[in-house]
């Protein structure tokens, strides 16, 4: 059975598509392509149908990640098919937990940086949208740092599942 992860930020053009691309690469490197699926969405629909921000695409390309992406808005009905919903900051965490139809669904929502043991107390990935390219580079570093721990956690859940 496939384990499904959805990364969520505000508009689904910067942070969440970056996290999706990095995590997909980690999944492929681990040889788990058929077992884990990743996608992304935004808490709002302002950019639905748009490509990822050009700065996101540029940073991902420069670091060897895939970049095919079309923005969309997260829907509460998705909780039923998702195993894990990864919020990029505390505001997204709160919004997603409010959208969750059940307590069980609300427990599926986690902060990405909670999977990075070196993250410290600030678990937000800052929104790079209104800044320069440096913010996108910083975002990528945070996403990469958390992706290994996230993959380890997902792998544990996969091993616990009945066959």
From TrEMBL:
It catalyses: O-phospho-L-tyrosyl-[protein] + H2O = L-tyrosyl-[protein] + phosphate. It comes from the Bacteria. The keyword Hydrolase applies. Keywords: Hydrolase, Protein phosphatase. Its EC number is 3.1.3.48. One of its GO terms (molecular function) is protein tyrosine phosphatase activity. Residues 3-153 form the Phosphotyrosine protein phosphatase I domain. It holds the Pfam family LMWPc. The active site is at 9 (nucleophile), 15, 127 (proton donor). Gene3D superfamilies: 3.40.50.2300. It is an enzyme of class 3 (hydrolase). PANTHER family: LOW MOLECULAR WEIGHT PHOSPHOTYROSINE PROTEIN PHOSPHATASE, LOW MOLECULAR WEIGHT PROTEIN TYROSINE PHOSPHATASE. Belongs to the low molecular weight phosphotyrosine protein phosphatase family. This is protein-tyrosine-phosphatase. It comes from Streptomyces seoulensis.
């Amino acid at each position: 059975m496939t384990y499904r992860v959805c990364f969520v930020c505000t508009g689904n053009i910067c942070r969440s598509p970056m996290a999706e691309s990095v995590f997909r690469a980690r999944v492929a490197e681990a040889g788990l392509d058929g077992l884990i699926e990743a996608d992304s969405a935004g808490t709002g629909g302002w950019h639905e149908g748009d490509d990822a921000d050009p700065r996101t695409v540029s940073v991902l390309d420069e670091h060897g990640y895939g970049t095919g992406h079309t923005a969309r808005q997260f829907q509460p009905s998705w909780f039923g098919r998702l195993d894990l919903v990864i919020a990029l900051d505390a505001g997204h965490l709160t919004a997603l937990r409010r959208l969750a139809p059940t307590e069980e669904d609300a427990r599926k929502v986690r902060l990405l940086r909670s999977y990075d043991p070196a993250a410290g107390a600030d678990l937000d990935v800052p929104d790079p949208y209104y800044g320069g390219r440096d913010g996108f580079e910083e975002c990528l570093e945070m996403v990469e740092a958390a992706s290994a721990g996230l993959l380890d956690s997902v792998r544990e859940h996969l091993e616990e599942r009945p066959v």
